[in-house]
């Protein structure tokens, strides 16, 4: 029996665009991915990028679309705003903004913000967070969402009490592509082995309290003086940055329930680093989590479920 799509769901980031067609049960019927993130879509036109992707999947002309991510940023398609924390993460589902310059019913979910203490925002990760909470029926614990800007979220009695951001992924990209360390990593920057001894050694250095900036140049020193290869250099740099992220989150202990929302290599690296820190975690696939969050928001928006 042929199943018909009822929603299109999109995770629209700064550099990447992902779109899924799903049926009434949330099953994926079609998927497309591209480099038409916010930066590219600003040049091409957000509506044009979206409709081209929908045409590729032969989506009906009246299929509604729910979007999360940087398409809702101030520099994106339309500013979708933020829900201030502390807050129930389900609050984002009631704040979806409708796009007014397209005939199709297109909504963008708001992000989350923190104004108390150090100002902080997230956009896109809040929908992964919603999907993870829904999947695990969580009410308390620490949720880690690695990425370009890693998020650590503290959930208390079903509410996001606070969250912190770590520029781990962005720093890795900048250092491996544009700093002097790029000569040490080469093409190995794209595929880090979490089981390489250099990764574990670097994580443990950071967990022992050594300063990150004082250790970064060791990646180049090891190449010049010990003939370490690109794979070892990439593992060392990744371990230093991820280790510094975990070491910096001093408000956690071995008794804290930890959920890691990550896929593929990112999930393997963080799982290994967290284990070295004495933290066991439940891992949830990041793609599945964001789809679940988008699907729930669609149901509440268009069906009132």
Keywords for this entry:
alpha/beta; about 300 residues; 6-stranded mixed sheet; Nucleotidyltransferase, domain 5; globular; single chain; 2 domains
Describe, in short, the structure shown.
By secondary structure, the protein is α/β, with parallel strands linked by helices. It contains eleven helices and 15 strands. The longest helix is centred in the last third of the chain and has 19 residues, at 230-248.
Task: Provide an overview of this structure.
This protein is an alpha/beta fold. It has two domains: 7-138 and 288-302, Nucleotidyltransferase, domain 5 (2-Layer Sandwich); 168-284, 2-keto-3-deoxy-galactonokinase, C-terminal domain (Nucleotidyltransferase, domain 5), CATH 3.30.420. The protein has helices spanning 38-44, 46-56, 125-136, 168-178, 182-185, 197-207, 212-215, 218-226, 230-248, 264-276, 286-302; strands at residues 7-12, 17-22, 28-34, 65-69, 82-84, 87-88, 97-98, 106-108, 111-114, 120-122, 141-145, 150-156, 159-166, 258-261, 281-284. The chain has a six-stranded mixed beta sheet with strand order 3-2-1-4-8-7, sandwiched between helices. A six-stranded mixed beta sheet has the order 6-13-12-11-14-15. α10 (264-276) links the parallel β14 (258-261) and β15. α3 crosses α11, α4 (168-178) packs antiparallel against α9 and α6 (197-207) runs parallel beside α9. It is globular. The model has no long low-confidence stretch (mean pLDDT 93).
């Amino acid at each position: 029996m042929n199943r018909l799509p009822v929603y299109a769901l999109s995770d629209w980031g700064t550099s990447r665009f992902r779109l899924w067609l799903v049926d009434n049960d949330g099953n994926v019927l079609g998927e497309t991915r591209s480099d038409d993130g916010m930066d590219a879509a600003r040049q091409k036109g957000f509506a044009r990028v979206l409709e081209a992707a929908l045409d590729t999947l032969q989506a009906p002309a009246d299929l509604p679309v729910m979007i999360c991510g940087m398409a809702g940023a101030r520099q994106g398609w339309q500013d979708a705003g933020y829900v201030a924390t502390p807050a129930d993460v389900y609050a984002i589902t009631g704040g979806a903004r409708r796009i007014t310059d397209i005939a199709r019913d297109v909504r963008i979910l708001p992000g989350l913000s923190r104004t108390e203490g150090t100002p902080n925002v997230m956009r896109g990760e809040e929908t992964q967070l919603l999907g993870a909470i829904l999947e695990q029926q969580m009410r308390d614990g620490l949720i880690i969402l690695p990425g370009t800007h890693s998020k650590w979220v503290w959930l208390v009695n079903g509410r996001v009490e606070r969250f912190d951001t770590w520029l781990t992924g962005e720093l890795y990209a900048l250092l491996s592509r544009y700093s002097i360390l790029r000569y040490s990593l080469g093409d190995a920057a794209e595929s880090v082995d979490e089981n390489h001894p250099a990764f574990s050694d670097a994580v443990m250095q950071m967990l022992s309290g050594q300063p990150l900036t004082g250790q970064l140049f060791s990646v180049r020193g090891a190449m010049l003086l010990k003939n370490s290869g690109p794979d070892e250099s990439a593992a060392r740099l990744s371990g230093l940055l991820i280790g510094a992220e975990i070491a910096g989150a001093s408000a956690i202990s071995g008794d804290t329930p930890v959920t890691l929302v990550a896929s593929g290599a990112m999930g393997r690296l963080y799982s290994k680093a967290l284990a070295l820190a004495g933290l066991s975690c439940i891992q949830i696939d990041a793609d599945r989590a964001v789809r679940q969050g988008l699907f729930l928001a669609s149901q509440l928006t268009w069906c009132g479920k």
